[in-house]
Amino acid sequence: MTGQQPIEDVGGGPSLFGPPRAPRGREEGTRAALIAFASSMIFIGVVLWVVLTSDAWPAVQKQFFNWDRFVEVFPKILRGFWLDIKMFLVAEVIILAVALLIAMIRSLRGPAFFPLRALAVIFIDLIRGIPVILLILLLGFGIPALQLPGVPNGALFWGLTALIISYSAYTAEVYRAGIESVHESQRMSARSLGLTQGQALRHVIVPQAIRNVIPALLNGFVSLQKDVALVLVLGVREAVREADIYAASTFNYTGYIAAALLFLLVSVPVARFTDWYTNRDRRKKQSVST
User: Fold this and answer.
1) What is the CATH classification number for the domain harbouring 167?
2) Are 215 and 281 in contact (CB under 8 A)?
């Protein structure tokens, strides 16, 4: 009927046949967030109350949360943590380059490249089947024992090498997933322009693939930032090793708490940035698809 006003729900909501209005959606989202925050605070408060009123809490506080011990050991752990950061930065740069090369080799087409593809597959399968800690032990103790001329024997060198080898295998598969996500028409178009397989990968496929897998690569950053501490099994005096030495000499474990706080100081912002970037990338792809 002409001139009739649209039917609205009580409270100035949307029309009967229309989508919900944005203000109501925002109100519901805000209310849900407040409820989630309040319930989380209540849960945390209950846990703290149970822990702090426990009869064993004074002993635990003395062994793990002793402020005087914290001040005493923190400078040593901070120096060790700086070594962790340097190892992480050096390893990450090398891993990104080596893994990309392995992924490109595995993505080559044609029977002529079968030996290279086979080597890449064998490398990835073998390395991914060995735990990182075991690889560090094998290289860190095994290679120096051979006393090969011209080969470094340092524990830091082989610990870092083991991390690079292990993470390169995993990161290569991340790159390969990104390469395979690029539509085949892109490769065919590049070949029709006269580009070789290597040129097509380097100039057309790989740039698109890297953009597709950046969130997965960022997750790898978070894992590597923590796993660099595994070189402590070779005696490298990084943050956790310094805490271990302090605990062995004083029978106090506050140093472990100090090391954990330093790792959290780096890993939590990186994790939050990873989630932010992943959500932004998802929204961008959804807007393009619509």
Assistant:
1) 1.10.3720.10
2) yes
